[in-house]
Write a structure and sequence with these properties.
CATH class of one domain: Alpha Beta
Structural class: alpha/beta
Number of helices: 15
CATH topology of one domain: FAD/NAD(P)-binding domain
Helix content: 40-55%
Radius of gyration: 23 Å
Shape: globular
CATH architecture of one domain: 3-Layer(bba) Sandwich
Strand content: 15-25%
Length: about 450
């Protein structure tokens, strides 16, 4: 292949991951065209009830630092140092995310982040953004993209295609129909709907230093703070529960019974519930993520996951970092770089899909349990006693860039020792456990 300046890259999808990929590839010297079916979100409001605030953590921050965007992105972000658990009686309990209490994930609006990344991409030499352009088909071996803008149709043949067009990716569907990849969709019976807790007298109605959770067994509600001092709430309910509430009276009765402390804070509850859409949730399994060294899937196009570890965007941003690393190591030979990207990232995509599903069960069913709280206290004690040796699953996923697949293996090695400590009694048992953990950790290095 030719030098970067002589190559044309087409990115399908101008969402978070597509815009970030454009920044990275533009900085490498490529000519990059981003094709986004929506209008420019910087000049048109986003669709109602479709934002789901992001919890930006270390993996996403690492990707932004590498291109000097982290300060710009983080300016409006709000740190959350733990979970605030709301029980059915309206009582609250704070659970720190880290043993030290000083680590935080960051609440940021998806729309605001997308706008920042689009502007950064547009300001990168060699990058051109095209809005209102729908990709209707992709074809190998010509590497052709069929595009539609209004009533006008065009077929282009870039050197490389990066598909960042999300769960409904046209490029992925075309590859699947051609028999080049296999795709399995794992739908959830749970859907999501957004609600709002507005500011009260110009201030936050809840503690903004926490991700608020109302765990209720088969369902839950969460709330993340916004810079305007409101909270974006998201219901995660079985689909039939949404359908069961039709009238204002039914909505208010249900919320007053299940989320009693939240209802007084939600003056637009009925309107939000009746008019905001219910979004579907599913996990996507794709194999492989690239074809012929010419086309690659990235972000949700390759690995749509459940949002319950706050890792969707973080994982997609890490895809971009790994692709950039593979281009470095291959001397920008895409025939080498894309298979290498596939080899390294696909196992980690599968790993975070598993972890996200596990964390949904934790958030929904376990966080209010006395046993769970005791285990968390023990985990934090082990982290303080063995810094650099023991790290909880949450710590490794949210506050490091340890590959997701490695997180699972390390966590499995550690959990047996944590259980031993949980059933042990006295300082002697804990001391023995710490010694076992240290030796086990060293063996696993």
């Amino acid at each position: 292949m030719g030098a970067p300046s002589q190559m044309r890259i087409a990115i399908v999808g101008g969402g978070l991951v597509g815009a970030l990929a454009a920044c990275y590839l533009g900085r490498r010297g490529y000519r990059v065209d981003v094709y986004e079916r929506r209008p420019d979100p910087r000049v048109q409001d986003a669709e109602r009830g479709r934002s789901i605030n992001l919890a930006l953590s270390e993996r996403g921050l690492d990707a932004l630092r590498r291109i000097d965007l982290v300060d710009t992105v983080m300016a409006p972000a709000l740190p959350m140092h733990g979970r605030m658990i709301h029980d059915a009686s309206g009582n609250m309990e704070f659970q720190s995310y880290s043993a030290s209490g000083d680590r935080a994930i960051n609440s940021i609006g998806r729309g605001a982040l997308n706008e920042t990344l689009l502007t950064a991409a547009e300001e990168t030499p060699g990058v051109t953004l095209h809005f209102g352009v729908r990709t209707t088909a992709y074809g190998l071996p010509t590497n052709s993209l069929a595009l539609q803008r209004g009533d006008d149709f065009e077929v282009i043949t870039p050197d490389i295609v990066i598909a960042s067009d999300g769960f409904g990716s046209v490029v992925r569907q075309s590859l699947e129909e051609a028999g080049r990849i296999s795709v399995t969709t794992e739908p959830e019976t749970t859907g999501y709907k957004e609600l709002t807790i507005p500011a009260r007298d110009g201030e936050f109605a809840l503690d903004p230093d926490a991700l608020h959770i109302w765990p209720r067994g088969a369902s839950m509600m969460i709330a993340l703070p916004n810079p305007d001092r409101s909270f974006t709430c998201t219901l995660f309910w079985p689909g039939e529960d949404f359908a069961a509430l039709r009238t204002p009276e039914q909505i208010l009765e249900h919320f007053s019974r299940v989320y009693p402390d939240a209802v007084p804070l939600m003056p637009t509850l009925v309107d939000d519930f009746q008019h905001n859409p219910v979004g579907p949730l599913a996990t996507l399994h794709v194999d492989p993520w690239q074809a012929d060294g010419k086309v690659a899937l990235i972000g949700d196009s390759a690995h749509a996951i459940l949002p319950f570890f706050g890792q969707g965007a973080n994982c997609g941003f890490e895809d971009v970092v790994e692709l950039d690393r593979c281009l470095d190591q291959s001397g920008d030979d895409w025939g080498i770089a894309l298979p290498l990207y596939q080899q390294r990232r696909q196992p980690n995509g599968e790993a975070i899909a598993f972890l996200a599903k596990e964390n949904f069960i934790e958030m929904r069913d376990k966080v209010a349990s006395p046993t769970f709280r005791a285990m968390k206290r023990l985990e934090h004690a082990l982290e303080r006693a063995l810094p650099g040796v023991y790290s909880s699953r949450y710590e490794m996923v949210s506050f490091t860039t340890i590959p997701y697949a490695e997180v699972i293996e390390r966590d499995r090695r550690q959990r047996g020792t944590v259980l031993a400590a949980a059933v042990g009694v006295g300082a002697a048992a804990l001391g023995t456990t710490l010694g076992l953990l240290t030796r086990a950790s060293r063996r696993g290095r």
